[in-house]
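**Tokenised fold:**
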Amino acid sequence: MRLKQTLGSLYFLYFGVLGIYLPFFNLYCYRLGFSGFEIGTLSALRTLTTAIFPLIWGAMADRFSMRRPIFILCHFVSTFIWAFYLVTAEFWPMLAITAFYGIFYAPLISFLESFSMDLLDKEKNRYGSLRAWGSISFIIMVTGVGQAIDLFSVEIIIPLILAGSLLQSILAVKVPKAAKPGGLDFSAGARFLLDKRVVIFLAAAFLMLASHGTYYGFFSIHLENMGFSGTFTGFAWALAVLAEIIVMVYSKPIFQKFSHEKVLIISFAAAGLRWLVLAGAGTAWLILLTQPLHAFSYGAFHVASILYIDALTPAAAKTLGQAVNNAVTYGLGIMVGFFVNGYFFEIIGAKSLFTASGVMAITGGLLLLMETAARNRKIS
């Protein structure tokens, strides 16, 4: 029970910090006068490190049974590096800080997912209710910080993230030592990476997260350019996460009734619909109407992907399995989404980018649907 409380608290803090960073860090850079390309480059660099370094840290953790020490080290070092954002507002120094911060920030969530899968064991369908603590924290932060920005300044996000990261680091020390498994079986890891189902899923998931690049990178800026306040922006993000929480809390009965593949395919369709509608949304009510689709485009998709990868991963490579999933999706996928959106934002605008995102999500869903249908035909 103590371990479950610790993990729930770590989710709460991790996504609380993310609830400050994700909606408002790019807005902070925009207020500093950075161009769309510079904002996209910063976001892409951070996610590039998220694509590469979870694999390195994950392989080390499985090979030498060092998941907990690496988890603690990366928390404290990344917190220390984040503090340097307090002393500069120039692009090139911030680019360097982003690179070094990302190296140590990269493995935190994939390691936390691995700890959770170990804890839940045969009750992995309950993962969503544990992960929901992160979404609750996210919704509190996007709402509260959005209002605080209207009252004070967007600059408050830098010390707020530093404080949250420090609390997160202190709590990471309380994760107890797990029984040491055998070292990483590299042949098992290689078989996992070359499995056709894994490859196709990762390709589809890459498209899904790349399609989120417009939303995560430029949704807040898009709303500001349309004349909406920081309070409205925070509320819009919060509404999306509220829908996400509902799905996560009730994820156990969902996955008892539906297969991972069915939930994933529905999530792709919901994401495609969401981005296409948002591309044409010009009023507050229509923008807010798209936000509950986050329950599927992120909430259901995230839970299903964690469970799906865990089911496909051999026991000797569990940390690596979650690291690969995180690297390809929240690393490489988001990186490409940020970079492409940063380049084209000032050329074609957010509405055209949301249209492209919708097509991308639908393409990923069709890819997974065709693989699932072909496998079912082969079995029958």
Q: What stands out?
A: The chain has 16 helices and no strands.
